[in-house]
Design goal:
The chain is an alpha/beta fold. It is built from eleven helices and twelve strands. The strands form two sheets. A seven-stranded parallel β-sheet has the order 8-7-6-9-10-11-12. The protein binds 1,4-dihydronicotinamide adenine dinucleotide. Belongs to the D-isomer specific 2-hydroxyacid dehydrogenase family. This is D-lactate dehydrogenase.
Length: 332
């Protein structure tokens, strides 16, 4: 089978090379071009397509793919918001994704971010930069003494709960669809509010949707224990950033670690080093010593990239050959 691998990044090449060696029966060609009305002609002569879009393909792309005999688009991502699933279906094209590629990558990152705050690494670094070797302001807290609220106990939240529990934390969870495996490491609270009550660490792992937009607002933050920290490696919109800043300013919260930010789309993955951000809230978050900002990289490990590349290629091959795959995305 001839597979076109679009939108390749340098970090994907080793995994692609390994897959090609293990599957000599398939012929894969890679390009850095992403799928668009200008590039869709590249699919001529190919049987299958895997892509990773940073912008959505234009509507006419689906008809062009159909005309070229392509029956699938295999996205090397978990999210599928780049695609018009209904339009794709109208043109006989199935969209597949890689829904679970390494929950552990995000779980490890959430744990590391929490430890960065509880062991006061920012303050340590700041003092050492000034050659101040005194202990003042560096008193840490141990996870085994803390109550950790995990909101959303799906693939990532469950693994995060396991890692915190392994270090002795008391883990409390909330999920409208409870998961038996979670009860081996933590206890479910009957409501989201009760999970927050008195928590020292809050970590967010539910999807962003209208019902969860700003679910962590001023009232939710007020339920946390004094001195609590908030870790958001879920989606920026889950958290009301202004309410977070107010809770940090009042001293109710001692820190926050944000891998996602409400208005991140125009910034993350781009080089803004020579431009004014024009976003005073992001500027403030970046400048604060009590906030650890990271640019949506919690997922970004060698293991995750390998799983996305392999998953993307296998879905492409399977869906092109059979017309379906286990991870076909349905219209909303
Ligand atoms: P999942 O679908 O396995 O788990 C999500 C869980 O949230 C489900 O169990 C669901 O029942 C639960 N949930 C839904 N509404 C809820 C609510 N109101 N309160 C509490 N729980 C609720 O998804 P997975 O793979 O664990 O991913 C979770 C989220 O993590 C994704 O939706 C995505 O936004 C984020 N993510 C972040 C990444 C990063 O690099 N920072 C990478 C990948 C995912």
């Amino acid at each position: 089978m001839k597979i076109l691998f679009m939108g390749i990044r340098d970090d994907e090449r080793p995994a692609l090379d390994r897959w090609m060696q293990e599957h000599p029966q398939h012929d894969v060609e890679a390009t850095t071009e992403i799928l668009s009305a200008d590039t869709v002609g590249m699919v001529d002569g190919f049987d299958a397509l895997t892509v990773q879009q940073v912008i959505p393909p234009e509507p006419e792309v689906y008809a062009a793919l159909q005309a070229a005999g392509i029956r699938q688009i295999s996205s090397r991502t978990a999210g599928t918001d780049m695609y018009d699933i209904a339009l794709a279906q109208k043109h006989g094209i199935v969209i597949t994704n890689v829904p679970v590629y390494s929950p552990n990558a995000i779980a490890e990152f959430a744990l590391t971010s929490a430890l960065y705050l509880t062991r006061r690494f920012a303050q340590i670094e700041q003092k050492l930069q000034h050659r101040d070797f005194r202990f003042g302001g560096l008193l840490g807290r141990e996870l085994a003494t803390l109550r950790v609220a995990v909101l959303g106990t799906g693939s990532i939240g469950l693994q995060t709960a396991r890692l915190f529990a392994a270090l002795g934390a008391t883990v409390v969870g909330y999920d409208p669809y409870p998961n038996d495996a979670f009860t081996e490491v933590g206890q479910y609270a009957p409501s989201l509010e009760e999970a927050l009550d008195g928590a020292d660490v809050l970590t967010l792992h539910m999807p962003l949707m209208p019902a969860t937009h700003h679910v962590i607002d001023q009232a939710a933050l007020a339920r946390l224990a004094p001195g609590a920290i908030v870790v958001n490696s879920g989606r920026g919109g889950l958290l009301d950033t202004q309410a977070l800043l107010a809770a940090l300013d009042s001293g109710h919260l001692s820190g926050a670690a944000l891998d996602t930010y409400e208005n991140e789309a125009q910034f993350y993955r781009y080089d803004w080093s020579d431009r004014d951000l024009g976003d005073p809230v992001l500027e403030q978050l970046l400048d604060r010593e009590d906030v650890l900002m990271t640019p949506h990289v919690a997922f970004y490990t060698e293991t995750a990239v390998e799983n996305l590349v392999v998953g993307g290629l296998e879905n492409a091959e399977l869906a092109a050959r059979t017309g379906t795959a286990p991870s076909v995305v349905s219209p909303a």
